[in-house]
Amino acid sequence: MPLWDRLLRSLFVATAVGLGWGIRGTYGHSLGAMVPGASLGLAFAFVSGQRSAMKWMPILGAVAAFFISIGGMMSYGLLHGYAQADTFRNYSYGFFTLLLEGGAWGGFCGVALGLLLEKQRVSVGEVISAIATSFAGGWLFFYLVVELIGFHINPGRNDTTINFVGQILALFGWTIWNKRWMGLRGLALGCMGFGLGMALGRLAGNAIRHAPFDIAHWTTMETTCGFVGGLVFAFGMLGRKLDDLPEERGWPSTSFLAIVYVMAFIPLLHNITRIVPSGREDRWSGILRARGVSDPDAIEAAIETMHQGINGICLAGLLAAAIWTVLWKQNRVRWAAFPILAFNLLMLSFQSFDTFYYYELMSPAKNHVNIHTPDCATSRAPAGARESTSTWNGCVR
């Protein structure tokens, strides 16, 4: 593959994952992380150009969505606070821990995709062995660092990151011991890509504050994290010819469930668990009033339109899943871009309705760019946090 072609394909993946990670920031935690995960699996299968990868696209998308969502268990808002400090000790500590946390986040997804791409299928016994080794490594590392040494990576929050770093180290050992080189490749690229992405994203978020216009530093960090992570993973994995996957067509029943999970279930879960009517209506009302809409009936009608729009997007997800199923069963390789484009369009539309993005766009504040309406999108650490980030009370992700 020519270098320019490899780079363009990687940039497509990077754009999809960067968009997905930006959307993730609105909803947070494990559920939100499914969006960039699914984008990574779908986009990479598409740019690989392999017929077998196209047929395994549903499984690659679903597996990537699930395994990257594991990282949502970690708390990292305070670590970003450290990385915004003026003191060198806090600053360097923040960036180092973000490298570790981002690496753990991407490592689980990378190794899962890599093992799926192995020429010789991974057996059930190997899967159980990998999981057991991972859990054992995480427990041992956590015990040594937290229980014996007494070190807490995220004071006041959870130490899940330490456990996950131990699991990643154990997976490095497992893939080498079992000579699963594609799994090792995916693991290394996932750790490196998303570790750098998290740290560079924070650096970009810090730098954007000095721009002549106001743009949310948190949004900048999120999209940069996903973009860099997707770029590094895709560029590295496309560096050699991928072997054909084990079967001409993945597992039909599992693939069908994966299609429904990615295209329909993920948007539906966001609707059920993240769209809290009372809280959303208060926030939406505030946005409308700030935009000059004072008539109660007009506010109520606009809010109802937003609710209907979000429900309509969930129905559109079911339709997209049905279309994808037909294309997949009929082996329409020329339509291989449909899943990734449809999924990103669905989730972007979902977020746009949820955050009243169009109202923000129609009447933006001067020199202000912000696609997140919650306060945390533009929150900045107070002046005291520049000296002591332990007092910072910014967004909790």
Q: Can you offer a commentary on this structure?
A:
This protein has 397 residues and is mainly α. It has 2 domains: 1-246, no CATH class; 251-364, no CATH class. Helix content is 72%, strand content 1%. It contains 15 helices and 2 strands. Strands 1-2 form a two-stranded parallel ribbon.
Brief description of this entry?
The protein is mostly helical and 397 residues long. It is built from 15 helices and 2 strands.
Draw up the topology in text:
Elements: H1 3-27, H2 29-48, H3 51-55, H4 57-69, H5 77-82, H6 88-116, H7 124-148, H8 160-177, H9 181-208, E1 214-215, H10 217-237, H11 252-274, H12 277-290, H13 296-329, H14 338-354, H15 357-362, E2 368-369
Parallel strand pairs: 1-2
Helix pairs in contact: 1-2, 1-10, 1-14, 2-4, 2-11, 2-14, 4-6, 4-11, 6-8, 6-9, 7-8, 8-9, 9-10, 11-13, 13-14
Question: Which overall shape is indicated by the principal axes computed on the Cα atoms?
Answer: globular
Name the helicity range.
over 70%
Low-confidence stretches: 371-397
- Give me the strand/helix succession: HHHHHHHHHEHHHHHHE
The main pleated sheet reads as: 2 strands, parallel
Structural class: mainly alpha
Mean pLDDT figure: 84
Task: Tell me what portion of residues adopts beta-strand conformation.
Answer: under 5%
Number of helices: 15
* Gyration radius, in Å: 21 Å
